[in-house]
Design a protein that fits this description.
Blueprint: H1 5-21, H2 26-33, H3 37-43, H4 47-57, H5 61-71, H6 77-84
Length: about 90
């Protein structure tokens, strides 16, 4: 399955909205990225930043499961969305 860039951005915005409401995980994201809450608002429309949100969530299966369960989407959807955003291309090193 592939996502259009617009659909990928929409899913990533959903992920950001979910992350902002998660009192346990939001501070981890802010600490890991060095972003501030002001940065979240200012950069929410940037595809590169949205890609970083999905990258962060995909670091832990429990986080992806929680997000996907909350949004009632298949667990692989964030991965497909990430591939459609800048920097998400699969690299073949051979």
């Amino acid at each position: 399955m592939s996502f259009s860039p617009e659909a990928a951005e929409t899913l990533a915005l959903d992920a950001l909205a979910w992350l902002v409401t998660n009192d346990d995980l939001l501070p981890v994201f802010l600490g890991a990225t060095g972003a501030s809450e002001d940065d979240l608002r200012a950069r929410a429309s940037e595809p590169e930043f949205l890609g970083s949100v999905l990258d962060f969530l995909m670091m832990d299966d429990a986080w992806i499961i929680a997000f996907c369960d909350a949004k009632n989407i298949a667990y692989e959807q964030p991965m497909f969305a990430r591939a459609a955003l800048p920097g998400g291309e699969q690299v073949n090193w051979t």
